[in-house]
Design goal:
One of its GO terms (molecular function) is phosphogluconate dehydratase activity. Its cofactor is [4Fe-4S] cluster. This is Phosphogluconate dehydratase. Keywords: 4Fe-4S, Carbohydrate metabolism, Gluconate utilization, Iron, Iron-sulfur, Lyase, Metal-binding. It holds the Pfam family ILVD_EDD_N. The protein is an alpha/beta fold. It folds into two domains: about 325 residues, no CATH class; about 160 residues, IlvD/EDD C-terminal domain-like (Glucose Oxidase, domain 1). It is built from 22 helices and 14 strands. The strands form three sheets. An eight-stranded mixed sheet has the order 7-8-12-11-10-9-13-14. A four-stranded parallel sheet has the order 2-1-3-4, sandwiched between helices. A two-stranded antiparallel sheet has the order 5-6. Strand 3, helix 7 and strand 4 form a beta-alpha-beta unit. Helix 6 runs parallel beside helix 7, helix 7 runs parallel beside helix 14 and helix 8 crosses helix 20. The longest helix has 30 residues. It is globular and about 75 Å long. The model has no long low-confidence stretch (mean pLDDT about 95).
C-alpha cells in the first residue's frame, strides 16, 4: 500500500464514488471470462473464416481451445515517425508466439494521426475525436471473438488513450501495450523553439525554419520532447500495461526487438489457459489510475491527460475527477525536467535513470500504490529497474540507480524541482480549467490583466502581425471546445505569446481549447468548461475585463461586478466554416454529443 495517507484517502474516495459503475463493469468482465476460450462459441463457418489464411498447423491449433491465439491491434502507418517502426512488429510477434506455443494474428488496424502535422490546420479539429474513434475501430477488430489476449501497438497522442479504452472495454482479455520508443536526439528543443520565434518575428525565412524542424524530427520514433506521446508511454509503464523498462528504448535496436518479443510471450502467458490469468479489466483498478495521475504530476506530463485519464478510467467503471487530479497535484512533487519544462529530452531522461529511478523514488516516498497487478505479474516494485540486452539476446534487468545520473533532469523526492505537481486545476467564476505549471516560472503563476478576446487562434496571430498586441493582457480564445469545433490544440499561439512575454509584457492565455503536452513558458488556463458554445462564462468576457489567473491558489476569475457580468448575454460565433473540409463533416455527430472537458470530452461516456 502507498504510505501517504492523503493518497490513500483520495483512492478510497474514488473507490466509493465508482461503485455504481465499477461493480457492474466487473460483473460483465467476469461473465465474459466465465464463458471460457471464446473461439469455442464460434460455429464451424465462423471459425473457418477466422483462420482461413493460417498455416495447416495453425489451423489445427486454433481448431481446439488449448492453444492461445494472440490478437494484434496496430496503429502502423509509414508516414508518421512514431508508428513507422510497427511495420516489422507483426512478424516479430508471430515468431515470439510460435516460440511460446501459440498463434498470433493481426486483428485490425486503427487510425493514427499526428497533431504535429495538423497543428493550425483544419485536420486538427478531428484530433481529439480520433481517440474515441480509435477505441471503436479496435472494437471492430476484436469483435471477431477469436483471441485469448491482445497486444496493442500504439504510441502517440490519442492513439494510446483510445487503445486503452478498447482494452478496458474488452476487459475480459489480457492486454499488453508494446511501444516503439523515441527517436534519437536531434536538434535541441530549445534551439528549435528559438528558430520558431525568429521566424514568427520575420528574422529568418521558411528555409531556415524547415531546416531546424527537420533536424528536430528526423527519424523513426516519437518526438523527443515530453508531450502527450511520451506521457502516454510513462502512463502505460507506471500503470502496469508495459513490460518493465519498455517505454523509452529507441527503435531499431536489438533491445527494442527483445522487449517486443518478450511482451508477446508474456501476453500468451497470462491468458486463461495458463496459471497467471490477468484480464485487463481486473488488472486495472482505482489504485492503477491513481498511480497514473501521480506519474503525470511527477513528470510534468501532458495536459491532455486531464481528459484522457478520465475517459480511460471510465471505460473500466472508475470515476476520476479534476478534483482528484488537483488534490494529487498538491501532494506529488515534480521530479523531471524534460522539455518544455527543461532543456533535456526523453533520451536524456532515460539515461538519467528513467522510469525505473522515477518509480523507485515515488515508491520510496509513499506516493505510489505498490500492491497493484501488472502484466509482469508482480507489484510495481518490479518496475524499479533498467532494461539491458542479455548475452543470449533476451532482456535482462538491473536495479535502477540509487541516485540520478543527472540531477538536472531527474531529481529525488528529497530534492524535487518543485514540491507540487506539474499540473494544476483552476476554478472560479469563469468555470473550471487546467494549467501546466512545470514550465512556467513561479513569478508568472499569478497573472492579473485585462482581456483581449478572440474567436480563434488565427485572429490572435493576425493581431500580432498587425502590431496590435500592446501592453499586458490575457488572451481569451473561445469557441474552441469539443462541441464547437472538436477542441483543437492551439499550439500556434505558443510562439506568439512567448515572443510578447520575452519582450517584457505580462501575458497569459484563457481558452476552452487545448494546448497539449507542449504547453510552455506562458501561463495558459486551458480546457475551460463550460465551453463558450454552451453559454459558459467565458462567452460573456469582453475586451478590457480584468481577469485574475492564480495557479498558486488554483483560481480563475473575472474581476467585474458579479451581477452585471451574469446579466450579460453570451457571445455567439459563426462556426459554419468549421463544419466542412478535411473530414470535419464526418464528425458532426461527435461534436453534437461530446461531453465536457472535465468529464473526458468523450462521445462514448457523454
Amino acid at each position: 500500500m502507498s504510505a501517504d495517507a492523503r493518497i490513500e484517502a483520495i483512492t478510497a474516495r474514488i473507490v466509493e464514488r465508482s461503485k455504481p459503475f465499477r461493480e457492474p463493469y466487473l460483473d460483465r468482465v467476469r461473465a465474459a471470462v466465465s464463458k471460457g476460450v471464446h473461439r469455442s462459441v464460434l460455429g464451424c463457418g465462423n471459425l473457418a473464416h477466422g483462420f482461413a489464411v493460417c498455416s495447416p498447423a495453425e489451423k489445427t491449433a486454433l481448431a481446439g481451445d488449448r492453444v492461445p491465439n494472440l490478437g494484434i491491434i496496430t496503429s502502423y502507418n509509414d508516414m508518421l515517425s512514431a508508428h513507422q517502426p510497427f511495420e516489422t512488429y507483426p512478424a516479430l510477434i508471430r515468431q515470439a508466439a510460435h516460440e511460446a506455443g501459440g498463434v498470433a494474428q493481426v486483428a485490425g488496424g486503427v487510425p493514427a494521426m499526428c497533431d504535429g502535422v495538423t497543428q493550425g490546420q483544419p485536420g486538427m479539429e478531428l484530433s481529439l475525436f480520433s481517440r474515441d474513434l480509435i477505441a471503436m475501430a479496435a472494437g471492430v477488430g476484436l469483435s471477431h471473438n477469436m483471441f485469448d489476449a491482445i497486444v496493442y501497438l500504439g504510441v502517440c497522442d490519442k492513439i494510446v488513450p483510445g487503445l486503452t479504452i478498447a482494452a478496458l472495454t474488452f476487459g475480459h482479455l489480457p492486454a499488453v501495450f508494446i511501444p516503439a520508443g523515441p527517436m534519437t536526439s536531434g536538434l535541441p528543443n530549445d534551439e528549435k523553439a528559438r528558430v520558431r520565434q525568429l521566424f514568427a518575428e520575420g528574422k529568418v525565412g521558411r528555409d531556415e525554419l524547415l531546416d531546424a524542424e527537420s533536424k528536430s524530427y528526423h527519424g523513426p520514433g516519437t518526438c523527443t520532447f515530453y508531450g502527450t506521446a511520451n506521457s502516454n508511454q510513462m502512463l502505460m509503464e507506471i500503470m502496469g500495461f508495459h513490460m518493465p523498462g519498455a517505454s523509452f528504448v529507441n527503435p531499431g535496436t536489438p533491445l527494442r526487438d527483445a522487449l517486443t518479443k518478450e511482451a508477446s510471450k508474456r501476453a500468451l502467458a497470462i491468458t486463461a489457459q495458463g496459471n497467471e490469468f490477468t484480464p485487463a479489466g481486473e488488472m486495472i483498478d482505482e489504485r492503477s489510475i491513481v498511480n497514473g495521475v501521480v506519474g503525470l504530476h511527477a513528470t510534468g506530463g501532458s495536459t491532455n491527460h486531464t481528459m484522457h485519464l478520465i475517459a480511460m478510467a471510465r471505460a473500466a467503471g472508475i470515476v476520476l475527477t479534476w478534483q482528484d487530479i488537483s488534490e494529487l497535484s498538491d501532494i506529488v512533487p515534480l521530479l523531471a525536467r524534460v522539455y518544455p519544462n527543461g532543456l533535456a529530452d526523453v533520451n536524456h531522461f532515460h539515461a538519467a535513470g528513467g522510469m525505473g529511478f522515477l518509480i523507485k523514488e515515488l515508491l520510496k516516498a509513499g506516493y505510489l500504490h505498490d500492491d497493484v497487478r501488472t502484466v509482469y505479474g508482480q507489484g510495481l516494485n518490479a518496475y524499479t529497474i533498467e532494461p539491458r540486452l542479455g548475452g543470449d539476446g533476451n532482456v535482462r534487468r538491473e536495479p535502477a540507480p540509487h541516485v540520478s545520473h543527472d540531477p538536472k533532469v531527474l531529481a529525488s523526492t528529497e530534492h524535487p524541482f518543485q514540491h507540487t505537481g506539474g499540473l494544476k486545476m483552476l476554478s472560479g467564476n469563469l468555470g473550471k480549467a487546467v494549467i501546466k505549471t512545470s514550465a512556467v516560472k513561479p513569478e508568472r503563476h499569478v497573472i492579473e490583466a485585462p482581456a483581449k478576446v478572440f474567436h480563434d487562434q488565427a485572429e490572435l496571430n493576425a493581431a500580432f502581425k498587425a502590431g496590435e498586441l500592446k501592453g499586458d493582457f490575457i488572451a481569451v480564445v473561445r469557441f474552441q471546445g469539443p462541441k464547437a469545433n472538436g477542441m483543437p490544440e492551439l499550439h500556434k499561439l505558443t510562439t506568439v505569446l512567448g515572443i510578447l512575454q520575452d519582450r517584457g509584457q505580462t501575458v497569459a492565455l484563457l481558452t476552452d481549447g487545448r494546448m497539449s503536452g507542449a504547453s510552455g513558458k506562458v501561463p495558459a488556463a486551458i480546457h475551460v468548461t463550460p465551453e463558450a458554445i454552451d453559454g459558459g462564462p467565458i462567452a460573456r468576457i469582453r475586451d478590457g475585463d480584468l481577469i485574475r489567473l492564480d495557479a498558486v491558489k488554483g483560481t480563475i476569475d473575472v474581476l467585474e461586478d458579479a451581477a452585471a457580468f451574469a446579466a450579460r448575454p453570451p457571445a455567439t460565433a459563426d462556426l459554419s466554416a468549421n463544419e466542412f473540409g478535411m473530414g470535419r463533416e464526418l464528425f458532426a455527430s461527435f461534436r453534437a454529443i461530446a461531453g465536457p472537458a472535465d468529464q473526458g470530452a468523450s462521445v462514448l461516456f457523454a
